[in-house]
């Protein structure tokens, strides 16, 4: 790992110490205990689903799989890390990397295999506790008069995470670089007439990750499956015809996520579908130019709908104006999701639907799926992901109306499923910096 990244991480930890000291003082809290969380076994089983460390814990300790551990933060004191690392021949214990940031913590190891529930970090009388502590029994929770999950404190910490340090942006950029290798392999597998499962395996191999480590379940959709927004299966056999491929897949780096989507026209797709894919790339690039401090993300979302209307008109899918397409709900039927979301330690990162003071900032009634309603500011990292889909469930209600949709062309494109193009971008002082190569 580069010295530059290590130095950025040290600066990141120092910045967290200053920010937490201010937040805790403002909240009237002397110390904060953050529980990492732990995986929960399936019912009547000894196997657990993939686990992700609690976000505010991961903000300090950039490891996405730490379990049964605690982090105690006190102003003007070194962070105290109570790490569960049992002596065990069934599993490899958690190991901290040999990196400079570790020396910034006082590390207390618990090596007793039966002792994960015995870690009870000492807390001051005026403390707070956050994290997924519900699975812990009362006897295993820290004995304190501490406030559990204080909402005002959590809102402040979420707001802090919304603005990324240079270290965090560097991690998201590297996660993007690693994910792009997977996307290139997925495209090559599609050209080779692979099945959805084979494309998924090619993606995992090239991006160097196992399926349990992806930040979200990869969406690999061929043909009409590209029109299922969160398609969750991988067909074992390649389809007879190759109309389209949609790959929405990411990667973690030191806990931070990449979230990238690409769509490809197949050899059996109508020529107009390939033209639409190119048009959506151009739309995404045009929207990126609008990312800048002071821009409201809702405004960008509305711009996306207007420009999508222009694409529908230009490619003869709608016989009217872009304004009419938006007003008649046509663009919403072709793109039912929001333009993007905040990105960081979680794919759909925190604080996207709140004002800076923590009060709610819900999605507009006409755009209920929008996950980010903030005015952009430097340090935010967001996704920009316009879409154009041919989903019968959404388009069918318009068939019996006077809305001027070119239904024969829609029916011709229906087997292609849909198009989504997604990049990750950081808001800078003067505009934006694209993180997706």
Automatic annotation (TrEMBL):
Its source organism is: Halovibrio variabilis
Q: Where is the Xaa-Pro dipeptidase N-terminal domain?
A: 11-157
List the protein's name.
Xaa-Pro dipeptidase
Signal sequence residues: none
Enzyme class, one word?
hydrolase
What this protein needs as a cofactor is:
Mn(2+)
Q: Which Gene3D superfamilies match?
A: Creatinase/methionine aminopeptidase superfamily, Creatinase/prolidase N-terminal domain
Task: Write out the entry's keywords from A to Z.
Answer: Dipeptidase, Hydrolase, Manganese, Metal-binding, Metalloprotease, Protease
EC identifiers of the protein: 3.4.13.9
Describe the function of this protein.
Answer: Splits dipeptides with a prolyl residue in the C-terminal position.
């Amino acid at each position: 790992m580069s010295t530059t990244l290590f130095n950025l991480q040290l600066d990141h930890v120092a910045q967290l110490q200053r920010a937490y000291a201010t937040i805790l003082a403002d909240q009237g809290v002397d110390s904060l205990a953050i529980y990492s969380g732990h995986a929960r076994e399936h019912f009547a089983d000894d196997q657990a689903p993939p686990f992700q460390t609690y976000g505010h814990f991961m903000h300090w300790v950039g490891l996405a799989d730490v379990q049964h551990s605690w982090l105690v933060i006190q102003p003007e004191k070194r962070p105290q890390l109570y790490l569960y690392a049992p002596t065990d021949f069934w599993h490899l214990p958690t190991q901290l990397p040999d990196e400079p940031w570790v020396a910034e913590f006082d590390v207390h190891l618990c090596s007793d295999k039966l002792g994960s529930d015995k870690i009870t970090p000492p807390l001051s009388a005026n403390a707070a506790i956050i994290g997924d502590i519900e699975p812990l029994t009362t006897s295993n929770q820290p004995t304190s008069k501490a406030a559990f999950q204080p909402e005002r404190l959590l809102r402040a910490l979420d707001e802090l995470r919304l603005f990324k340090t240079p270290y965090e942006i560097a991690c998201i950029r590297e996660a993007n670089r690693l994910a792009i290798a997977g996307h290139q392999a997925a495209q090559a597998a599609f050209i080779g007439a692979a099945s959805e499962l084979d494309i998924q395996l090619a993606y995992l191999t090239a991006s160097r990750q196992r399926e349990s480590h992806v930040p979200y379940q990869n969406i690999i959709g061929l043909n009409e499956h590209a029109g299922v927004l969160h398609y969750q299966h991988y067909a074992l056999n390649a389809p007879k015809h190759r109309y389209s491929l949609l790959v929405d897949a990411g990667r973690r780096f030191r806990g931070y996520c990449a979230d990238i989507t690409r769509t490809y026209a197949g050899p059996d797709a109508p020529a107009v579908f390939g033209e639409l894919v190119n048009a959506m790339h151009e739309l995404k690039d045009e929207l990126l130019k609008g990312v800048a401090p002071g821009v409201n993300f809702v405004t960008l979302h509305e711009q996306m709908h207007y420009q999508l209307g222009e694409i529908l008109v230009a490619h003869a899918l709608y016989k009217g104006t872009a304004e009419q397409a938006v007003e008649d709900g046509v663009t919403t039927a072709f793109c039912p999701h929001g333009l993007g979301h905040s990105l960081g330690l979680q794919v759909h990162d925190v604080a996207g639907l709140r004002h800076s003071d923590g009060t709610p900032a819900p999605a507009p009634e006409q755009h209920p799926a929008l996950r980010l309603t903030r005015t952009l500011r430097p340090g935010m990292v967001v996704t920009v992901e316009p879409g154009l889909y041919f989903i019968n469930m959404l388009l069918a209600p318009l068939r019996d109306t006077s809305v001027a949709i070119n239904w024969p062309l829609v029916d011709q494109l229906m087997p292609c499923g849909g198009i989504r193009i997604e990049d990750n971008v950081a808001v800078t002082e003067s505009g934006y910096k694209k993180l997706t190569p």
